[in-house]
Amino acid sequence: MGHPHVFFFGALAGDNYLLPYERDLLANCRILRNFINNIIETRRSQLVSEPGTADAGDFLTTLLTEPHFKDNNSRIIDECLTFFFAGS
Fold it and tell me: Which site among 21, 49, 50, 86 is 20 to 30 Å from 27 CA-CA?
């Protein structure tokens, strides 16, 4: 997280970070990752029910059909977050 107490005493911090800022940051990260995960699951179910949409060409569909990413939601979420924050 970039704070000395977390770097030196990371084992003590665990999920109960020592500062309120870090607890809020962790909660916001979880909310954002869950939000993107819901979008992924919605799009994945749409691809199953409507196979013709697999040629849509959008970023998420590409990730969901790419062999390296398609079975790993964590990788897809990481890529989506990277594109989102790099573009902002």
Answer: 86
The residue ranges of every structural domain in the chain are: 4-86
Question: What pTM was computed for the model?
Answer: 0.74
Check: CB of residue 65 under 8 Å from CB of residue 44.
no
Single-letter code of the amino acid located at 16: N
- Asked whether the CA dihedral 85, 71, 41, 74 is positive or negative, the reply is negative
Please report how the helices 73-86 and 20-49 are oriented relative to each other, as an axis angle in degrees rounded to 10.
Answer: 110
Burial of 19-36, coded b for 16+ CB within 10 Å and e otherwise, reads: eeebeeeeeeeeeebeeb
